[in-house]
Amino acid sequence: MSTIYYNASIFDGKNEEITRDAWFEVTDGRIAQIGTGKPSKKAEKNIDLKGKYVTPGLINAHTHMMMNPVTNKLEYLSETEVTATAIQNLRDLLESGVTYIRDCGCAFNTDIKLRNFAKEHDLEAPGIIASGRPMSMTGGHGDFKEGADGEIDWSYLTDSPDEMRKSVRTALKIGADNIKVMATGGVMSAGDNIDDTALTPAEMRVAVEEAHHKGKKVAAHAQGNSGIQNALDAGVDSIEHGIYVDEKQADYMVKNNVYLVPTLNAAASISKYGRDKLPSYMIRKNDQVKSDFFKNVSMAFKKGVKVIVGTDAGTPFNSFKTGTWEEMQLLVNEIGATPTQALLSATQYAADLIGISDNYGTLEPGKFADFLVLDQDPTQSIDAITQDNKLVFQHGKQIK
């Protein structure tokens, strides 16, 4: 079945300019041809988009599908509860225009299981790059209990290079696409501070060695400056959050193609919605760092670090429905990105980071037909992406 969409204004994720009076053909879920003017042939279906704007489907490179951003319950979740929550969150993401995600830590390896299930069944969900359970140290960020009786740790608890090697090999054996390591403390953990270092460079270096040996990448939760440096020294592929990244580290990241996924919306959501609702330690830590966070990410962006859209979706009040749009707005309004740069951070650049650019991230022949249809030009105003009744297509099938 082939469909030609014509009279479109296309942002293809490769070029910064909109291509007007454009058409594209979708066959068997992939883009077959793209052109301008009158289509070169007729298809089985021919749809006039009436000048509306077409963009690649959005990519959210940092989610936690298992978490409920309203209840904020993180511990003693059963596998059934985790799975039910994840399925709803995935549906919300897809309907918002997010057609691919990288999940960065999930109890019971539910992200891996749902990724596998989706390949064989009709699960309405974005494509998934799954990390499974992350790597933490005993007592560190990510050391909390799951299961109704606390029968499993959320993270693999690794306290030596040998334990790290065993844990990463186990994660890869069961199908992790990405390895997540905890290099520092965090806002949401009661027992540590943001500037605390956690996993050692030697431990993380083993994670990188094992992951890269299998062609996989390593993402480091790294908020404090010393922990960011430890993660960079270990050779990770991306810094997640990066609150206290400094100029020297930013220069290193540019030179060595290390990505930054700041998850600005996590801090913004706690600040906007969490007062009088969250534990005092979360509010205190978030208030201490938010201003520095935005300032340091802006510095890194202006130095040329590739800043990627990821939201930490699932953290307190950090919505799966609207968070991706809010992250893109924060990049423009707080960090200094243009709307086009924010779009690239959620399409081409995000696809490069999570390793799916052969098939996703841009609109060009041979790639999957994941795209959005918007009423307004998102390269002129990033607010165009927030359109609630936008059309969402995944592999050529209209989802919404």
Distance between the termini: 19 Å
The CATH level-2 architecture of the largest domain is identified as: Alpha-Beta Barrel
Work out the radius of gyration: 21 Å
Number of domains: 2
Q: What's the CATH C level of the largest domain?
A: Alpha Beta
Number of helices: 11
Shape: globular
The level of helicity is 25-40%
Q: Sketch the major β-sheet.
A: 8 strands, mixed
Low-pLDDT segments, ≥5 res: none
| Oligomer category | single chain
Assess the beta-strand content as a share of residues: 15-25%
Structural class: alpha/beta
The total count of strands amounts to: 19
List keywords for this structure.
400 residues; Urease, subunit C, domain 1; TIM Barrel; 4-stranded parallel sheet; 19 strands; globular
Could you give a short description of this structure?
It contains eleven helices and 19 strands. It is of the alpha/beta class and 400 residues long. The protein folds into two domains: 2-56 and 362-398, Urease, subunit C, domain 1 (Roll); 58-354, TIM Barrel (Alpha-Beta Barrel), CATH 3.20.20.
